[in-house]
Amino acid sequence: MTMDQILENPSTVTLDTLELRVKQCARCPLSETRTNIVFGEGDSHARVVLVGEGPGEVEDQTGKPFVGPAGQKLDEVLASVGITREEVYIANVVKCRPPGNRAPTKKEMEACLPYLEAQIALINPGLIITLGNTPTQWLFPSASGITSIRGTFLPWRGGIQLLPMFHPSYLLRYPSRAKGSPKYLTWLDIKRVKKWLDE
Ligand code: URA
Predict the structure, then answer these.
(1) What is residue 150's DSSP assignment?
(2) d(C-alpha 72, C-alpha 52), whole Å
(3) 80-122 tens-digit pLDDT
(4) In a mutational test of the pocket of ligand 1, which residue from 35, 39, 92, 109 has the highest number of ligand atoms less than 8 Å from its CB?
(5) Where are the domains of the chain?
(6) What pLDDT digit, counting tens, does each position of 136-176 carry?
(7) Model pTM?
(8) CA of 60 to the centre of ligand 1 (A)
(9) 179 CA distance to ligand 1 centroid (A)?
(10) Which CATH number fits domain 3-198: 3.60.15.10, 3.20.20.80, 3.90.550.10, 3.40.470.10?
């Protein structure tokens, strides 16, 4: 199935068929250096989709999103309010690891965007959590920097809201839990997510 067919005829596409398509993807040079694609995983009917930047080394090796050190931190953040990975869906802006963990380029993100768009359309969540600046700016170009915009519910498209949060790897660099620290602010943000889920 071509990408055009996927986008023109979303009713014939499922997350599984889309994943098969991404496995064959060579739309950008990241396909030449990847070990595995990291499509995304979780509940295909999740109310919350989390979007990171792109796979790191462990994700590239395993084909699963957020399973390295940043992933363990993300699990902790979710668990602090009783949210499990199984009840959300976790994806990235780019599905292949940028070598050396560099940020993905605009061209790479552009090449991969239709996949994320299709995932969001298929899952149809009520809330998208963008982790860090890259997915936030990518999905909401008028957003200001993550430090000022995190924790704010932004109206996105078709009734979907977007909530930017710090990227978990940022939390790994700042261990303090003091009031006003990135960890403290993230805890406030994830409590907002929990409240939204419970409402
Ligand atoms: N960082 C990300 O942005 N995504 C992953 O899947 C892992 C680390």
Answers:
(1) T
(2) 14
(3) 999 999 999 999 999 999 999 899 999 999 999 999 999 999 9
(4) 92
(5) 3-198
(6) 999 999 999 999 999 999 999 999 999 999 999 999 999 99
(7) 0.95
(8) 10
(9) 26
(10) 3.40.470.10
